[in-house]
Amino acid sequence: MSATSYDGYEGLNRLALDRAGQAEAFDAIGDRYDDAFPHKEGQLASGAWLADNLPAGSRILDLGCGTGLPSAHQLADAGHRVVGIDLSPSMIKLARQNVPVADFHRLDIADLRGGRLGGPGSFDGIAAFFSLLMLPRAEIPYALGMLHDLLRPEGLLALSMVEADVDDFTIPFLGNSIRVSGYLRDDLRRVVHDAGFDVVGEDAYAYAPSSTDVPPEIQLFLHLRRA
């Protein structure tokens, strides 16, 4: 699949699938999330790359912003105009408290179609930290294509995923259940390339939540430029 206008993707209808269960899990987690995931070195490093490589005052979308910590706060502190979206009302409420200078909306990624927060080319950068892994694999290329179009030419995307060969797989998560998807490293590179992005940097970190005894997961951070 090559990059083109997301309005032309018939497959984008997939992005309207019901994700209510996902939102309910994060609503239940609420402010426990940041306590369970206190160390986010990879996310902070990737956010710094995004913040430092865009002009001051750039408009940045924080996709799946969660509580606003650390990314929306980090990007706003760097002088950028941050627009965050999340499907969880509890997360949006916390984000507004944590980063009052940013603009937060309770929206699903599907709601970005049709210029809801600005049409093609309306963002200089996008942060998508562990948000696309909440989608089935069949939806991820369409989501990447939409993000490609929301970016200005040569705009930047900081993307993180967990390295795992899974598709819409149910896992326990802080006393709840969520569904996640992942890719092996080479497959993720191929998917972003096919969506119209150049990989300009890449990092990997081993990570485990502080509140569990599960083995560390491998988190992949890709620094992408719209081709």
Please indicate the percent range of residues in DSSP E strands (runs of 2 or more). 25-35%
Report the strand count: 9
Question: Which structural class should the secondary elements be placed in?
Answer: alpha/beta
Overall residue-averaged pLDDT value = 86
CATH topology: Rossmann fold
* Major sheet size, sense and barrel closure: 7 strands, mixed
Low-confidence stretches: 1-12
- Determine and state the CATH class: Alpha Beta
Which CATH architecture is right?
3-Layer(aba) Sandwich
C-alpha geometry: globular
Cα-based radius of gyration, to the nearest Å:
16 Å
Report how far apart the termini are.
Answer: 14 Å
Helix percent reads 25-40%
How many separate domains make up the residues? 1
What do we call the CATH homologous superfamily? Vaccinia Virus protein VP39
The count of helical stretches stands at 7
Protein name: Putative methyltransferase
GO molecular function: methyltransferase activity
Domain Methyltransferase: 60-155
Organism: Streptomyces lydicamycinicus
